[in-house]
UniProtKB/TrEMBL annotation:
GO terms for cellular component: cytoplasm; PML body. Belongs to the protein kinase superfamily. It comes from the Eukaryota. This is Protein kinase domain-containing protein. GO terms for biological process: intrinsic apoptotic signaling pathway in response to DNA damage by p53 class mediator; positive regulation of transcription by RNA polymerase II; smoothened signaling pathway. Residues 20-331 form the Protein kinase domain. InterPro entries: Kinase-like_dom_sf, Prot_kinase_dom, Protein_kinase_ATP_BS, Ser/Thr_kinase_AS, Ser_Thr_dual-spec_kinase. The chain crosses the membrane at residues 205-225.
Length: 331
């Protein structure tokens, strides 16, 4: 049996309830294939995620279904999450059917040649995602893989900058997340995950801050080829972790690049794409909107954290550095 189900325009996928006709293949990745399809009974357009048959991907599909059964209890419109319709198996391939959405924020940024977005549009996106995290927190859920690729524009022509969150393959209840789990894509990975510290919903807030920074800068705020590079990059902007973090209780301690190379055989990345030394340096970006930038930094220093998110911030062992930036855009 082929790992990828061989599909082309016109191919049919059948569940116990519906038949779907493939319009075209949206993309193909490590997990499998995503196809834009038409539900033949009512001509509704949907997106179907067709998993590979390899055991690890079938296991991941079942885990995603378990996560979807938790988030399906949330209102998909108010919580800004993709609407999930059904799952089925066709020719041995696990298939997940979702509402069809426009395109990801990453695709949108590519179309803009990664030019920074105006603050007024970033604010609209962050407000929606902050609301999503508020709903997740109430349900005690961690998404664990928030990134540009997993935030979709719903219908940009009709509803500009309306977004929804997708891909719950790594999602779990807070109580079910194991310290040391390999979660979050590296440029969006929080210090708690890197340092092997206890995890809370705050790790998603960190990722939201990284998303906001990317839209604002047109590039990753933190980027490294390893977790060592990442923590050095984060410390370059935020300083050392709090003294309350005991390096003997986590699988980490800061090493010099020379010692790191000697112990691991890996070369540390010595260059960064920007010279940012603090979030205040964001003032040097968007020069044409300087008043708005001063407003952002000023409000980030003075604005109180919304009560709905205050526990999330307080529980974070590493105190996410992008909290104030994301929250000020939220308000």
């Amino acid at each position: 049996m082929a790992l990828h189900l061989q599909l082309h325009p016109g191919s049919l996928l059948t569940s116990g309830s519906w038949t779907y006709r493939v319009q075209f293949i949206v993309g193909q990745g490590a997990f499998g294939t995503v196809a834009k399809c038409t539900r033949t009974a009512d001509m509704k357009t949907v997106a179907i995620k067709i998993m590979k048959t390899e055991g690890i991907y079938m296991k991941q599909a079942k885990e995603e279904v378990a996560a979807l059964k938790r988030v399906v209890l949330l209102d998909p419109e108010r919580s800004n999450i993709v609407r999930w319709y059904e799952e089925f198996i066709d020719r041995g391939h696990f298939c997940l059917v979702f509402e069809h959405l426009d395109r990801s924020l990453l695709d949108y940024m590519k179309e803009r040649y990664f030019q920074p977005m105006p603050l007024k549009y970033i604010r609209l996106i962050v407000q929606q995602l902050a609301s999503t995290l508020d709903h997740f927190k109430a349900a005690k859920i961690i998404h664990a893989d928030l990134k540009l690729e997993n935030v979709m524009l719903v219908n940009h022509q009709q509803e500009p900058f309306r977004v929804k969150v997708i891909d719950f393959g790594l999602s779990n209840l807070v109580s079910g997340v194991v310290v040391g789990s390999y979660i979050q894509t590296r440029p969006y990975r929080s210090p708690e995950v890197i340092l092997g510290l206890p995890l809370t919903e705050a790790i998603d807030m960190w990722s939201l801050g990284c998303i906001a920074a990317f839209l604002y800068l047109g590039n990753m705020l933190f980027f490294g080829m390893s977790e060592y590079d990442m923590i050095r990059d984060i410390m370059g902007i935020q300083g050392k972790p709090p003294d309350s973090i005991d390096s003997t209780t986590c699988a980490w301690k800061l090493k010099t690049p020379m010692r790191y190379r000697k112990e691991t055989g890996m070369m540390a990345t010595m260059m960064r794409w920007s010279n940012l030394t603090s979030l205040d340096d964001l003032l040097h970006f968007h020069v044409s909107s300087l008043n708005s930038c001063h407003d952002v930094v000023g409000r980030a220093r003075n604005k109180p954290v919304p009560s709905s998110l205050i526990t999330m911030e307080a529980q974070s062992a590493a105190l996410p550095c992008l909290m104030s930036f994301a929250l000020v855009l939220h308000g």
